[in-house]
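Key result, reporting period 2: structure in, sequence out.
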């Protein structure tokens, strides 16, 4: 039987990049035969968060966003990472068989430092917690963004080191599932770089009305007039439209932009269509989100039920590890 597992960051409002690159594929996988485990990575968020109220809000926001967009807690064990603390015990055991060099090679650590983050020890040993998060549930498959591929490989290495060190089959080797379509794996932001919270170029998934108009207006354009024929590849707005439009409609817009002339749409038209389709795509999700925000007890209930199942599973694996290394 396949077991799918993935984590969700809880460090801010989820944006279109998170949607296409992580949330949508996660939610789609629940249709696959097998077991499904998804957690909200609040311990990970603590590597940078110094705002208790903000952290709580972000956890709720992530939970609500996933549920609003169709995550089915009957099919998926959905919980908050810190509710199953067995992973922190496993993280310790795994870090005791891991060389410093492995952590030093982590891209995400190097990137965060390059962006000016103060290197705390938690940030440095993050891959051990991530390995524990994964291995605690014996998953066969781990759907992750391209940016997390290295962490899954590190997880495989740590699992193998632990098994070899204690000559026991404690941890199963998980395989990553990575989106191969670059448009989805690397959704662009309003400035044309990869969409990222830390670049301030995001569009919030549930943005609507004036806020959405403002965000879409931020998408970089140039001063070429509508009638000038243009290669659609040179128009950043198309990187957004292609995420949403049916292929037939997309082609129509592309043809008109390529041909130019009096009938060609200007950037304002393209933006108008983009706003419309974003409103439409997430309308139901926005409504469901409002409902869930108004019923926090329901969200708490879902997370508590998930935590119970997660603890049960993680305890089995934790006990296997304790025994293998002689702590029990
Ligand atoms: P930060 O700037 O702090 O790194 P972020 O905006 O990049 O934040 P993450 O929390 O790193 O968001 O992303 C969570 C997951 O969402 C990633 O592992 C990846 O799968 C997906 N993701 C993030 N940004 C994009 C993007 N632009 N395109 C596709 N997927 C993305
Ligand atoms: Mg990122």
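The corresponding designed sequence is given below.
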């Amino acid at each position: 039987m396949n077991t799918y597992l993935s984590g969700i960051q809880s460090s801010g409002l989820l944006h279109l990049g998170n949607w296409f690159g992580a949330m949508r594929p996660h939610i789609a996988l629940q249709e696959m035969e097998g077991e499904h485990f998804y957690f909200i990575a609040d311990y990970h968020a603590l590597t940078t968060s110094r705002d208790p109220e903000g952290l709580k809000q972000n956890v709720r926001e992530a939970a609500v966003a996933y549920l609003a967009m169709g995550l089915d807690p009957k099919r998926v064990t959905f919980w908050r990472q810190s509710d199953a603390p067995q992973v922190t015990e496993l993280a310790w055991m795994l870090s005791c068989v891991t060389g410093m060099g492995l952590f030093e090679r982590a891209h995400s650590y190097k990137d965060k430092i390059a962006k000016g983050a103060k290197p705390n020890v938690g940030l440095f040993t993050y891959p051990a917690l991530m390995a524990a998060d994964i291995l605690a549930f014996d998953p066969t498959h781990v759907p992750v963004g391209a940016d997390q591929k290295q962490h899954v490989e590190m997880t495989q290495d740590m699992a193998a080191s632990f098994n070899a060190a204690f000559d026991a089959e404690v941890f199963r080797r998980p395989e990553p599932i990575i989106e191969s379509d670059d448009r989805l794996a690397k959704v662009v932001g309003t400035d044309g770089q990869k969409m990222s919270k830390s670049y301030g170029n995001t569009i919030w998934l549930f943005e609507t009305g004036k806020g959405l108009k403002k965000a879409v207006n931020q998408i970089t354009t140039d001063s070429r007039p509508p009638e000038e024929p243009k290669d659609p590849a040179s128009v950043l707005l198309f990187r957004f439209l292609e995420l949403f439009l049916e292929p037939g409609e997309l082609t129509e817009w592309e043809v008109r932009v390529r041909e130019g002339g009096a009938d060609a749409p200007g950037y304002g038209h393209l933006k108008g269509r983009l706003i419309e389709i974003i409103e439409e795509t997430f309308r139901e999700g926005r409504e469901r989100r409002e409902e869930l925000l108004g019923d926090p007890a329901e969200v708490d209930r879902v997370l508590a039920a998930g935590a119970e199942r997660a603890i049960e599973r993680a305890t089995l694996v934790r006990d296997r590890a304790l025994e293998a290394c002689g702590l029990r």
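The longest helix spans residues 296-325. The mean pLDDT is 96. This case is discussed further under Risks and Mitigation.
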